[in-house]
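lol forgot to send this yesterday, sorry. struct tokens for the thing we talked abt
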């Protein structure tokens, strides 16, 4: 459920075309976190970890892309 946070923020950034007051450092740390969990899931071959964290990774990349594009 927490992975939806990334998509909500990305939606706001791209619809308003503004990333004002959005922390690239904070979302970069979030990306590192979900990537770590994704790698862990791949090592364990755990489908739930892989799917949920792959979904979160895409969302985090969208947010960071939006921040870099609109700041």
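and heres what i got for the seq, position by position
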């Amino acid at each position: 459920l927490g992975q939806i946070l990334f998509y909500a923020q990305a939606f706001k950034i791209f619809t308003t075309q503004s990333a004002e007051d959005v922390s690239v450092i904070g979302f970069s740390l979030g990306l590192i976190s979900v990537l770590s969990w994704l790698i862990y899931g791949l090592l364990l071959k755990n489908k739930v970890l892989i799917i949920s964290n792959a979904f979160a990774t895409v969302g985090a990349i969208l947010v960071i892309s939006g921040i870099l594009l609109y700041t």
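The helical segments are 4-16, 24-44, 47-70. anyway ping me if u want another try
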